């Protein structure tokens, strides 16, 4: 069983609706198992607008609460381990044991980010002169695009997404 693919943008699943697609092929059998829909320019604009709106709310969330959200995400990944691993095997041709190990690693990465995000401290940097004090202050800066390779489809996105979600994303020097 392979899930129906779509684009999840701004809380809505989008399917074909005039989008170009390409087949997803199981490398073990060479059978087409799904169609992968490509985002249009309008889809990308909608996603960016949605991300900006979410950022305005998320930037106010404390490190403690971000960590809680990420720990819950790690728990969800673990609870869906076998289904996710099966999908990875269908898409990648990896053996199931390797896919399961990757899903476990992805959950561990998310949990690690949750803990690290709580330690996003600022710092004081000595200035060149005694009357200058420089502060490093974590400050959210906004949505980011993250591109990942195809060969580790659970761990690489988990690393990029969870670290962006847990941190303030930027260090400002005053």
End-to-end Cα distance, whole Å, is 54 Å
The second-level CATH architecture of the largest domain is: 3-Layer(aba) Sandwich
**Portion in helices:** 40-55%
Q: Strand percentage, roughly?
A: 15-25%
CATH topology of the largest domain: Aldehyde Dehydrogenase, Chain A, domain 1
Given the C-alpha coordinates, what overall shape results?
globular
- The whole-angstrom Rg is 20 Å
Order of helical and strand elements: EEEEHHHHEEHE
Question: How many individual β-strands?
Answer: 7
CATH superfamily caption of the largest domain: Aldehyde Dehydrogenase, Chain A, domain 1
The average pLDDT value, as a whole number, equals 89
Number of H- or I-type helical stretches: 5
CATH class of the largest domain: Alpha Beta
State the low-pLDDT regions, or none. Answer: 169-174
* Widest sheet: strand ordering: 5-6-7
From the helix content, strand content and strand pairing, which structural class follows? Answer: alpha+beta
Largest sheet: 3 strands, antiparallel
* Overall domain count: 2
